[in-house]
Specification:
Strand order of the largest sheet: 5-4-1-6-7
Protein name: DUF434 domain-containing protein
Radius of gyration: 22 Å
Number of strands: 13
Distance between the termini: 50 Å
Mean pLDDT: 89
CATH architecture of the largest domain: 3-Layer(aba) Sandwich
Pfam families: DUF434 (PF04256), DUF5616 (PF18481)
Shape: globular
Structural class: alpha/beta
Number of domains: 2
InterPro entries: DUF434 (IPR007368), DUF5616 (IPR041652)
Largest sheet: 5 strands, parallel
Order of helices and strands: HHHHHEHEEHEHEHEHEHEHHEEEEEH
């Protein structure tokens, strides 16, 4: 029976993912994957094509697959993602091994890979057997304290019952929960992915199938790992966003900041200025309220902002609601949040 791959930071992975030349090949391969998958090419065939073109070995292809998705999958997942501010008082279900192992990997100094959907994944795996590592208890405590700070009412861990040592891990989780007063329930399920989807509740997972089929989800892995020091994160998202969104870096960074803080479902790109690299349009999730943001002819610290309300008549799609020139990011964020009713 296969066992979980080691989390040790070895020289091979440093060469496969740490060298600039290897990273460049992975970056180009990811761009090809996004192109192919967005045009409905099968995943396996796309991975083979990109892997062969850029001479990627198996572990690099595993990382590439975890980072990849189509434009439709990206939109579907982002539209169901819940922001941290919406978690208070809720019950959340954790895809147990999925959530735990990615944090173990990050704490152990292994590489983690940011997918186009914003989820962090690794290339460790569980095939019928699991064993704890030196960072397991630390990872469980970090998860527990983070969810406690987010004021979740209840946390339900769902582990794979057929995986060996899952029963022992269940006991460890209950011991930690009792010691730290975490509101945890631990379940062992024969088909945890199916259980998470059919439950129709708020879930945490980076499993692609679960994300596509679930009702709502919270990106716990990214929330946790972004706060860790000296983590080996490999991400090519900003370059790809710049190419697909066709905006300058300031606009892309601003949109990413707003969507990360308020949720992609509440900050929706509705761009009527596609040819303008220094401007973008955003709406609330209903599409009724719009903000136009520009950096044209302004220094790095200031923006122009124009607000539009729903139309007062049938002659125009929006009605003016005020303009703000030479405002700071903090001022912009406050006005946008108020106008889009966030």
């Amino acid at each position: 029976m296969a066992t979980r791959s080691t989390l040790e930071n070895n020289q091979a992975d440093n060469l496969l993912f740490g060298e600039p030349e290897a990273q460049e090949r992975l970056q180009y391969a990811l761009e090809d994957m996004y192109y192919l998958l967005s045009r409905d090419y099968p995943l396996k065939a796309s991975l083979t094509l990109a892997g062969n073109r850029y001479q990627l070995v198996k572990r690099q292809q595993q990382a590439l697959q975890g980072m990849s998705c189509s434009a439709n999958e990206l939109s579907l997942r982002k539209n169901k993602e819940v922001s941290p501010t919406k978690l208070k008082g809720q019950t959340i279900l954790l895809d147990g091994f999925n959530v735990l192992i990615i944090l173990e990997t990050a704490l152990s100094g292994g590489f983690v890979f940011e997918g186009l959907d914003g989820c962090y994944r690794d290339i460790s795996s569980v095939h019928g057997s699991y064993r704890t590592v030196q960072t397991t208890e630390d990872a469980l405590i970090i998860i527990g304290k983070t969810l406690q700070q987010l004021q979740l009412q209840k946390v339900i861990w769902v582990f794979d019952a057929p995986v060996s040592n899952s029963g022992k891990l269940k006991g460890t989780c209950y011991e930690i929960a009792e010691k730290h007063h975490f509101p945890w329930e631990i379940l062992l399920e024969n088909a945890p992915d199916k259980y998470l989807i059919e439950n129709s509740g708020l879930i945490c997972s980076s499993d692609a199938w679960v994300l596509d089929e679930c009702k709502t989800w919270f990106n716990l892995g990214a929330y946790l790992i972004k706060g860790l020091p000296e983590t080996k994160i490999l991400s090519f998202n900003k370059r790809l966003k710049q190419e697909t969104l066709n905006k300058n870096k300031r606009i892309i960074d601003l949109v990413e900041h707003l969507q990360n803080k308020y949720g992609a479902t509440n900050i929706v790109i509705n761009d009527h200025w596609e040819g303008d690299l220094e401007a973008i349009g955003l709406t609330d999730k209903t599409g009724k309220y719009l903000v136009y943001i520009s950096t044209f002819n302004l220094d790095y610290y200031h923006y122009f902002l124009s607000l539009e309300n729903p139309p007062a008549d049938n002659e125009s799609p929006y009605s003016p609601a005020g303009d703000y020139d030479y405002i700071t990011l903090e001022e912009l964020e406050s006005i946008v949040a108020r106008h889009l009713k966030l």
